[in-house]
Amino acid sequence: MSVGVRNPLTQAYAAVSGTLKQRKYQGVLLKGLKPAVAFKVISGSKDVPPKKLPSDPVFKAAGRTRVAFLGYPYALYDPFISAGVYDKLKKLGVEVVTFEQIPLREMRRYSKVMPQNFFWYYSNQVCWTGLYFLDKKNIDGIIHVTTFGCGPDAMVDKTLELEAKSAGVPFLGLAIDGLAIDGHPGEGGVQTHLEAFVDMLWAKRQKYRTG
User: Fold this and answer.
1) Which has more confidence, 161 or 181?
2) For 157-186, b where at least 16 C-beta lie within 10 A, e where not — what string?
3) CA-closest candidate to residue 130, choices 153, 104, 159, 103
4) Domain of 16, in residue numbers
5) Are residues 11 and 33 in the same domain?
6) What's the average model confidence in pLDDT over 116-144?
7) Domains: count for the chain
8) Tell me, what's the pLDDT at 143?
9) Are 41 and 28 in contact (CB under 8 A)?
10) What is the phi/psi pair of residue 68, to 5°?
């Protein structure tokens, strides 16, 4: 056997094994776990605190403020890039849902709703997910994390803003780089934005209940 030629059976086993792992990983993401935790789950790590997995994203927990947290994965989950927005929302008592919790087949249905889909994979997924939640009417607001100066993000952000406005759902676009201070995320500014937005969602819900 010449150097560089591999056993076809070994290649087939690796392909099947990788496919099964990927499906398991996506299944864990659908339950609402962050990618870093999902990796630990599928690898069998014992460094995963026992917890009840979140419910189906279609159904909103009673009495909880729910926010669709949208954006590209690297912008959402990297605590440095995003200034820890995901964890900050959790600490504010917000139920956070992301596009990873929506099956791709469900998202793709909304590709037919948009007049023109984008040319970028994640841009489409973010928009389709926003339309999904707006259609289901099971969120209190949308937060879109964008990176300052990103061309595709600018279009995605405006599309989501207009769709949310049309549906009467509060929208917050966070340009993380634009909130940076000396090259570092301005966490104080981000925290202020989030607190004001969540307070507004809460006030809106109270007004709706008493109105």
Assistant:
1) 161
2) bebbbebbeebebbbbbbbbeebbeeeebb
3) 159
4) 1-53
5) yes
6) 91
7) 2
8) 94
9) yes
10) -80, 115
